Amino acid sequence: MSGTRFKPRYKICTRIEENIWPNKKFTSFKNNKWASILRYTNSQIDLEGYLRSKEPGLGEVPTLAGEYGDQLRARQAIKAFYGLKEKKFKKIFRESNFDRRRSQKTFLGLLERRLDIVLVRTGLANTIFQAKQRILHGFYLINGKKIKSPSYRIKNGEILQIKEIHWKKVYEDLNHRIEKNDDIRYPPDYLLIDFYTLNVIFLREPSINEVIYPWHANIKLVREYYR
Questions:
Q1: What is the pLDDT of residues 191-205, one digit of tens each?
Q2: 135 in any annotated domain
Q3: CA distance 102 to 84
Q4: Which tens digits make up the pLDDT trace of 47-67?
Q5: At what angle do helices 115-122 and 128-136 cross, to 10 degrees?
Q6: Which one, 22, 80, 105, 176, has the greatest CB density within 10 A?
Q7: Angle formed by the axes of helices 86-95 and 219-226, nearest 10°
Q8: Which range marks the domain in which residue 68 is found?
Q9: Which residues fall within 8 angstroms of residue 174, CB to CB, at 6 or more apart?
Q10: Number of domains in the chain
């Protein structure tokens, strides 16, 4: 994996003025450039550690002043959260019902079915970057078959497993974060995890309210940006 594939997460957060990942280190930064990222305190974050998308319309309608800038930042934040480049992100958008009214595929559903984000949502990977790396190294199986593509879309009822040789490593990492109370969140209702075997089943398409983010994500602005 090349060093230019992902920019440093701190740089991404300062550029779009959002704490995309719930990183506690930001609270210790004193430089003025971090001020805009520290707008959301712990009291504004729900018990699962994430801020839920707003309704109706998955966000507030921006004012005319700075409308394009709001759309651009919203797109950059969502794209960075899922660790996607523009070409892939736009392709997912074009495939969804956001762009094609007759499409049965939802934008959030296509994003949340990706193998890498499922690992993050269930805690089997600490970050989207770690998830992608471990997938490429062959850590995980889908219905017993090794998958080495972070973009693999998990279907309803499919079982995600950890390869036996890597199971202890993943378990110890997860257990260590739990003991440290290090940003552990409950898996969403559309994912079922067995904490004894660490097997995960993708149960169903997620609803709007079930897709949560560490900041006030505005999906509506992403839709407006591409239209």
A1: 999 989 999 999 999
A2: yes
A3: 25
A4: 344 444 444 344 444 444 478
A5: 120
A6: 80
A7: 90
A8: 9-109+209-226
A9: 123, 124, 198
A10: 2
